[in-house]
User: What shape does this take?
Amino acid sequence: MTKRKLAFFILSGLILLFLIVTGFNTFTVRSKQPSPHPAKMTINQDEAVQHLSKAITFKTVSYQDRSKFDFKEFDRFITFLQESFPEVHQKLSFEKVNGYALVYKWKGSDASKNPIGLTSHYDVVPVLKGTEANWKQDPFSGAVVDGRIWGRGTLDDKIGVTGILQAVDYLLKEGYEPDRDMYFMFGFDEEIGGDEGASKIVDALKARGITFEYVLDEGGAIVEKMVPGVTQPVGVVGISEKGSATAELSIEGSGGHSSQPKDHTNIGRIASAIAKLEDTQFKGDLRGPGEDMFEFVAPEMSFGMKYVFANKAIFKPVIEKILLGQPASAALIRTTIAPTIFQAGEQYNALPEKASAIINLRIMPGDSLNEVKRFIEDTIEDDDIKVTVTGSEASKVSSVNSWQFKSIQQAARNVYRDAVIAPYLMFAGSDARQYDPVAKNTYRFLPVQITSEDLNRMHGTNEHVSIENYINAIKFYVEVIREGNKGKSVE
Assistant: This one.
């Protein structure tokens, strides 16, 4: 046998072995989706719709300037909850923390079990001035038109408040009694950070020595056409949220007349620094929550995509390159850089003595503020530019293999039987991170099936939710309470 033939047979054998191993990996991938076991329930639709519709009419708006809060509206909203859910307020303990944060406790029969907390918020973002006429229905009307409920808070996040209370009311009327204590906690300033709402609730709970098995807040939703290669809608449950930091780049130096500029002005040097950061970017790495998401989604993919992700140890560089090609998927695997403010100059013919830029960064779990600062300094290579970085690092990463996550996944599948439920990394912020000190796990999930366009309406124009989605959200909260009370003991 010639050397050429021998090399051909060796190469053919290696290719065959490669195909056998990768094919085996592909065909042995097993679904991580639990079989749905929906309970029969009939939600009083008219009453539920009426409650959410009315809730929208209260202008519980959060402003960065807290002096603009109209707390009379917040008082009216709380009174509305008490009048709309009398049985809940009669049978559960109820307290107001820091005046407007609400905590309900449903006492369970087994004190040895840690409680579960469901949380939401009833403040909403303002309607952008000048956009009011673009709304098909008044943003605070709560109008019910064509099978949809309209207004600010229908998706973010009065749907969570009334949805949870509607579910508790349903279970009370059914005679249901939980095994473990259940807490339902509603903040009033989530849209501006939750420092006076969820944070104060956590302070009170911490003082009482309470530790939750998990806390479930708003976050990911069930989104249609979310993952290439997956025909079913994908429901994403946030197991962590990225940190949010602000980097300021500033430089001071001689100004002078614009007729005699230096080769590199203050503006030019800041601009050059930003260009270097955008050209370099943080390294993408498929790890943590992003990797977990594809572990859950890959078994449901078409064969080609399944083949790639089932053998990600081999194809990881290719996968990362593909993910980095789109902003949404790139944000899943790297710390992001977004220059948002540039300040310099006052006169067209005078060189500014100062120049500065603000960059918003969303930080991956595992990356620290110090590492981010060092990366910026090493990348821009300009010792005269002062770099300061402030903000928060990513929240802790919650378990995807625990009964806690699986109970949420099961509850979602019980209502949305065709959806693929997977963990993911949340890019925005929520009150969930406030509960990290008092919870073994914190999860983020809004139990509605929506499109990418609906996501843009959450803080935008024409926010609305279909009645079907709202009823399904109530059913999910019923299911998640039941699933969380199926005899799990303290770990």
Summary: The longest strand covers residues 214-223. The chain has 15 helices and 15 strands. The mean pLDDT is 91.
